[in-house]
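We modelled the chain as a single entity of 287 amino acids. Its sequence is:
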Amino acid sequence: MTVKNSIEKVGTLIESLPYIREFSGKTVVIKYGGHAMTDENLRLSFAKDISLLKLVGINPVIVHGGGPQIEKLLDQIGKKSEFIQGLRVTDGETMDIVEMVLVGKVNKEIVNNIHLAGGKAVGLSGKDAGLITARKLYHNEHGLAIDIGQVGAIEKINPEIIKILEEDRFIPVIAPIGAGSDGQTYNINADIAAGKIAEALKAEKLILLTDIQGVMIEGELATTIASENIPALIEKGEIKGGMIPKVNCCVEAVKGGVKKAHIIDGRVEHAVLLEIFTDSGVGTQII
């Protein structure tokens, strides 16, 4: 390594110092999904990022998806998936598969990767300690309520278990499975779960890892968008498709007390650290 390279590395560390100072002791909720979960190198770099955040005094809380892994197992048993506007139609058999994959496989893989990176993580589902109370969600189409199975809407977040783990220096890793007062298990959208958990914790940041750069306006990456401008951008068609629910999730979180929400490109190695510890950041922040 040359002296020049060493100086550049030291410069990066110095750039991060004010952010470490600013965010020490604060909570950052990260929705982990997409390519960042399926690429081996990105999985390991993500685990290192999360372990480093905890080491410097920031409290990361991970809420993860697992769509590709669920799809793979459903294919193996010959069960065809059905989606209505991005929501997986979840009958009883599918719910069993979803819970088994998210809680029993994906969650534990993330926990293990963080351990290998030097962190201390604990895997949870929304059923643990009453973390996520949910109710049945119906899809509304032309004023008609369509039954899409065991898909849930969040009624309440009880963040007590998360706070206990944070105080004991553990990193919570949460599978978005909720329990209803009717005893039913519900499959919950991971973005929404992350947003509601961030609200309940009054988190400093909500970060959604995606497979695109961020919010694109007129072909250019929008680095900052004020939440009050979002409805007009959606109406004009600047924000469209699958980005609409993600942006709305961020707006709800900011309205609910989260300081800032970010939509960032999880395909970029160390994207979380780049967002938190650099002047330029990556992706789009919603304020």
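As a brief sanity check on the tokenised model: The two ends are 40 Å apart (CA to CA). The chain has ten helices and 16 strands.
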